[in-house]
Amino acid sequence: PTFMPAFSPLQFRRIVRASAVYDLVVTVPFATPWSFALAFGQLDTANQALGGGALPAFAPLHTLFALLMGSVVLVWSLARLRTPTVSLGRHDAAARALFSAWMLWAWGQTGAPVLLLFLLPEAAWGVVQAWPVRAADGSPEHSASRNRAFGGAAE
Which terminus of the chain has a lower count of CB atoms within 10 Å, N or C? Predict the structure, then answer.
């Protein structure tokens, strides 16, 4: 049997909380039309500074989808700050895998270097929140009963 280091439940809850703080910092600008307009200008400047082209202008409907994403992630972040459980961390890891996949797709379509500024931390948070967690008794998280519904070790 291969030994794979695992986080303690306390360490993992701290990771879930830290990822939520990261999401708040990154996502708050996507929560209102006014903050998004400022953030989008900064993203455009960053993309050009990194060697990419100007980002395409957003119409109100595009902005709506950005605001919906920002609002949902904002609420999701607050839930993980308030209750940083293994289960929420596992669900967040799954969401980050999806976000990372779509960022990779967009990067492949556009080559926009600014996407990498989001993709790399997104993928890293996903990997760390998918990492094994020791059960409360100190045993590794391997049994199927501990892994049901992404729950992992005892909350």
Answer: N
Rg (CA), the chain: 18
For 95, phi then psi, to 5°, come to -65, -40
Average pLDDT of span 24-53: 97
Beta strands in 38-106 (DSSP E): none
How far from 48 is each of 21, 51, 63, 136, CA to CA, in Å? 27, 5, 20, 49
Asked whether residue 86 carries a pLDDT value surpassing 60, the answer given is: yes
Per-residue HEC secondary structure of 47-62 comes to: HHHCCCCCCCCCCHHH
- Residue pair 152/146 in contact (Cβ under 8 Å)? The answer is yes
| Closest among 49, 137, 143, 148 to 41, alpha carbons compared | 49
Q: What is the mean pLDDT of the chain?
A: 90
Alpha carbon 38 to its chain's center: 22
Name the band, by pLDDT with cuts 50, 70 and 90, for residue 139.
low
Between residues 137 and 31, the one the model is more confident about: 31
Kindly compute the dihedral angle of the four CA atoms of residues 26, 28, 29, 34, in this order, to the nearest 10 degrees. 180
Q: State both tokens at 5.
A: 């280091």
- Dihedral pair phi/psi, residue 83, rounded to 5°: -135, 80
